[in-house]
Amino acid sequence: MYLSTISRPKPAAGPGETGRRRRGAVSANVFALGTVSMVTDISSEMVTAILPLYLIIGLQLSPAAYGAVDGAYTGATVLLGLVGGYLADRVRRRKAVAGVGYGLSAVAKLGFLAAGGSVAAIGLAVTADRAGKGLRSAPRDALITLSTPPAQLGRAFGVHRTMDGVGAFIGPLVALAVLAVAGQQYDAVFVTSFCVAAFGVLILVLFVRDHRGPVPQAGSLSPRQAAGLLRIAGVRRAMIAAALLGLATIGDGFVYLLLRHRENMADVWFPLLAVGTSLSYLLLATPMGALADRVGRLPVTLGGYGALILVYLMLLGPVGGWPLVVAVLVLYGIFYAATNGVLMALAAPLMPERLRTTGLALVQTCQAVAYVGSSVFFGAAWQFWGPTAACVFAVLAGGVAIVATAILLFGINRPTATVEATS
């Protein structure tokens, strides 16, 4: 069980949770958070499933321009992710901060209505949507860790990510249904997406319980104390590893566009590529989380990035047709199942409970900043040197990231005293 001995916060008494909870079960709070994520992901994936095709085909963006937009899509999480993480730890209102993030993403869906065909306006709407994601992600993940015994973190994140994957699976299908009913009018997708996102916020308000802990004394959590996280060796290593892994990730849109480019795929099938990945992801997220608790979170994470390298290699290889499409989507789902929640479960016990949200935000921010650079570089490489050269660069980056992460985090779960950031 990776890292479970580093810090052992008391599990929160979430709704329906008892000291005699069966091994393997997750708390009602984790299930409620998973439901919120599932509904929110239906809303988000309705938009993201059609956005790459809309920008590349509809608005005739170049691969380099799309890379910049895709980088902004994740890069917008950086600043608000850090602010939201620190604020949630300081005021002990993780649910409230997460709620603001979910609400911002919901309102951003209406921004697509006002954007029309303006790339700049679409970029602003995308930025607002991802800023909301940045604001909510660390408080949400911190609530999961504080509602779960350390030895079961992998399983809890796996269940949460499975429910998240269900939403990602349903979202593109809902988008296709809405487009069919509305006569291919994208505005109908944006309106429906907003309504679904608003319902997710309502579920958060009604069913998710906060984990506030003891009320802090005034000024007890200063920026200087938060910066003390950087003095913890394990946290620094996790941040560097997250950045390296972010450099190895090119983004869903590029993977699907590469498949479309290789197979001359009809546009009508494009949104279904995300459905295939989501199906693989939701089926494997919980088993991967449980496996990580048994054999170690680092090996599972590295195995997931190994699956990502295989995706890049298959896009370079001679195999084509439906075997290529199925293999890429299955491997891409394995990549997400083995890394998305497992990386947070790996990093969380390195951090003291009172700075858990800030610490997770730091790790997520390092990964997001690196992802921005990766998306921009991959798009430029595709445009100037071609998709084959771009994929070769991605394979090399992935190999370096796996080796460096293994070196950085090997043995990091050795028993130590509970870590605390110093003032």
TrEMBL record:
Database matches in Pfam families: MFS_1
Domain Major facilitator superfamily (MFS) profile residue range list: 29-416
Topology term for the membrane: Multi-pass membrane protein
Cell location: Cell membrane
Membrane spanning residue stretches: 30-57, 63-88, 165-182, 188-208, 238-256, 268-286, 298-316, 322-347, 359-378, 384-410
Principal location: membrane
Entry keyword Membrane: yes
Span list, region Disordered: 1-21
Alphabetic keyword roster: Membrane, Transmembrane, Transmembrane helix
Protein name in UniProt: MFS family permease
